[in-house]
Design goal:
Its main location: cytoplasm. By secondary structure, this protein is of the alpha/beta class. Helices cover 47% and strands 22% of the residues. The chain has a single domain, classed as 2-Layer Sandwich (Nucleotidyltransferase, domain 5). It is built from 5 helices and 5 strands; from the N terminus they run βββαβαβααα.
Length: 164
Amino acid sequence: MVVLGIDPGITNLGLGVVEQVGQKARMLHGEVVRTLHTDPAPKRVGRLYQAVYEAAVRFKPVAIAVEEQFFYRQNELAYKVGWAMGAVLVVADQQGIPLYGYGPPKVKQALVGYGHADKTQVAYMVRAILNLPTTPKPTHLADALAIALTHCFFSRMTGLAPLS
């Protein structure tokens, strides 16, 4: 099973592709797609769309997993992350790939076994599970890989429904 994990952001979008065969998982691809805050919104969203589209076409994932983010009193940030999510949603629709969302506590629970683990513990587990020589950096990449691994973990459960 190949899963495309996304840590959505308009300035830094983490993109990680994980393949799981049996109990083993490996990283097929990882990158952080960066846009400039000085560029107009259409150019920024277009850049994110292109990167997600290229990963979807190249790796043919069976699912796209995104980090569901919750913003409290950060309307502008939520609005701009929405731009990034829009690019991901279009790719998922065009390619016919189901989209799943996981909040930070679910990711931490799946990888560390504790829903209140810190980011360094999650990044360490990403490194260990994927048998990487170093911890993925920056954090956007580690988060994208963690989200893909979370979907691999939860996909074994029945009743998993895509985002609607």
